[in-house]
Amino acid sequence: MNILQVNSVCGVGSTGRIATDLHAILESRGHQSTVAFGRGDARNCSNTIRIGNQIDNYLHVLRTRVFDSHGFGSAKATTVFISKIEKLNPDLIHLHNLHGYYLHIGLLFNYLKQIKKPIIWTLHDCWAFTGHCAYFDYIGCDRWSSSCHDCPLQSDYPRSFLFDRSRKNYEEKKELFSGLSGLTLVTPSKWLGGLLKDSFLKDYPAIVLNNGIDLAVFKPKSETFRHNNKLKDKFVILGVASVWDERKGLGYFFHLATILGRDEIIVMVGLDSNQMKRLPPGIIGIAKTNSTKELAEIYSAADVFVNPTLEDNFPTTNLESLACGTPVVTFNSGGSPECVNDGCGLIVERGDFPGLVAAIAKVRTMGKRAYSEKCREHAIISFDKIINFNNYINYYAKIIPGADSDTPRETE
């Protein structure tokens, strides 16, 4: 098989690592694989296509900030990319995040409708069926189910400072994303799969395939992080995010810091420079890291992983923590609780801060050792990337005419 993946980034962040993990498994099984991406540098991938350049990204950002037309910039870059798809002639195109200031979705989808190849689109958030935002449930917005307008999240990603184009964006997406033969939608969580049924994408076949992680990297490690940060006798509460904001639960950690015991400490990974400057006492801040080895050491050092996200799809951070033997405490929001079963952590109703504190206290009373073995076992059974991403590859073979997942087809 000859597979092309398209994502905003390559080898960094959760979606970038998903794309490169899939790429590695495809190549290990003798298939041809290419990852096309639009931002930053490619990592951990031997065969890539860069869509546009940094100037294209900046111009797309400017267009978004002023006109709220995210996804409708980068016309020249997309035209050049389409010519490269023609030369590559893949058997199947696997789309991931199409937002991220690098693609013109109008040009791309009009082209995809012409070539009539099998398409898989993994939705890592809700952007595909809204007029602006990637998430909406945490503020109780339901406009996406009929027609977006007067967006209450205009100032959130992808931020627009001047115009609100949410109604027009919604109508254009609906027209562009409808009527594509051979498209299958994939959601990593049952929660997002449920939302699809009420969206304008409801007529497409959709399946749930959980994300996977590298269990050889994310596993219990030595206490290096505790030793280096003088945390030997501390109860360590960990939070990890690629971007910290209201939706991710930043405020809950700041509130939690005000009631910490003397032997308790919070470690937050993924903070930006401004957030680092205003950290309250009791929180150790760490900038964003793309080192999976470093992340595994931090997860392993923690006594509990707290994910107070108000809405998320299927957080990879939860899976990584479980694989390192650290229990998860999370809100019952989005797809976050779907990976937490009995013995692996606790689920608290969304926004319930006293409940969050009580859950952390319960983990402390029980002790991390009461959870670790079940956490690791659950990760091995349910979130092994080799097994989970092989499910993708087997599905590729099912929908590519004449393909065999175990017998790669030679390409010219």
Global morphology: globular
The biggest beta sheet is recorded as: 7 strands, parallel
Name the average pLDDT. Answer: 94
Strands across the major sheet, in which order?
3-2-1-4-5-6-7
Number of strands: 13
Distance between the termini: 11 Å
User: What's the architecture of the largest domain in CATH terms?
Assistant: 3-Layer(aba) Sandwich
* Gyration radius over CA: 21 Å
Order of helices and strands: EHEEHHEHEHEHEHEHEHEHEHEEHHH
Number of helices: 14
- CATH superfamily membership of the largest domain: Glycogen Phosphorylase B
What's the CATH class label of the largest domain? Answer: Alpha Beta
Low-confidence stretches: 407-412
Portion of residues within helices: 25-40%
Structural class: alpha/beta
CATH topology of the largest domain: Rossmann fold
Strand content: 15-25%
In total, the number of domains comes to: 2
Write up this protein.
- The chain folds into two domains: 2-212 and 385-399, Rossmann fold, CATH 3.40.50; 224-382, Glycogen Phosphorylase B (Rossmann fold, 3-Layer(aba) Sandwich).
- The chain has a seven-stranded parallel beta sheet, sandwiched between helices. The protein has a six-stranded parallel beta sheet with strand order 10-9-8-11-12-13, with helices on both faces.
- Strand 5 (119-122), helix 5 (166-177) and strand 6 (183-187) form a beta-alpha-beta unit.
- By secondary structure, it is α/β, with parallel strands linked by helices.
- It is globular.
- The chain is 37% helix and 15% strand.
- The model is unreliable at 407-412 (pLDDT under 50).
